User: Which sequence fits this backbone?
């Protein structure tokens, strides 16, 4: 059997996966302000859509927001005032690191531990990669990397869940409206929240 026949046979044995099945549908975050706290009331639904443990998602949302919080069943409460956009950005970061395959771009992955290392294995293309346990971000870090109202030159290294470009600068993850992965743009910081920032191309 030659290579082409072997490849055809292997492809025939793969389960069919339509574009509709492969598309990731994540519910929009639902937030509620509660005094000095903000609740994420549908975290369990979001975690289920991602196919991940709700505690794991909660821990990483805390890290991205640079705050502490408490998980109560399918709901979470975070110290501080956060908008729905803040939660969307934190979930975008989670999807990029812990859900999306970097080879084929599909979300058909499993998060597994092999020899003590967390690995992301793709069931669509067979690729796998380690996922890094990054240190928690804190708002007490010295020297802000970005400031509201300031323009910076940014390298766009990723794409958010809603199509915004994503850049990193210091401790900040910056979501840039109107930018695409692979571009280097000048962007105006319109708002910061914890260690997240929101900008537009100028």
Assistant:
């Amino acid at each position: 059997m030659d290579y082409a026949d072997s490849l055809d046979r292997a492809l025939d044995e793969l389960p069919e996966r339509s574009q509709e099945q492969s598309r990731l549908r994540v519910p929009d975050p639902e937030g509620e302000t509660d005094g000095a706290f903000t609740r994420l009331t549908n975290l369990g639904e979001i975690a289920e859509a991602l196919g991940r443990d709700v505690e794991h998602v909660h821990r990483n949302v805390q890290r991205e927001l640079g705050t502490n919080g408490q998980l109560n069943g399918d709901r979470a409460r975070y110290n501080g005032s956060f908008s729905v956009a803040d939660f969307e950005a934190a979930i975008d970061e989670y999807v990029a690191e812990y859900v999306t395959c970097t080879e084929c771009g599909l979300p058909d992955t499993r998060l597994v531990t092999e020899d003590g290392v967390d690995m992301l294995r793709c069931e669509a293309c067979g690729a796998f990669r380690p996922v890094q346990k990054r240190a928690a971000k804190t708002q007490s870090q010295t020297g802000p990397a970005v400031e509201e109202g300031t323009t910076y030159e940014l390298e766009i290294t990723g794409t958010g869940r809603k199509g915004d470009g994503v850049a990193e600068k210091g401790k900040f993850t910056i979501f840039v409206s109107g930018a695409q992965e692979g571009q280097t743009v000048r962007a105006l910081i319109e708002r910061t929240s914890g260690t997240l920032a929101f900008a537009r191309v100028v």
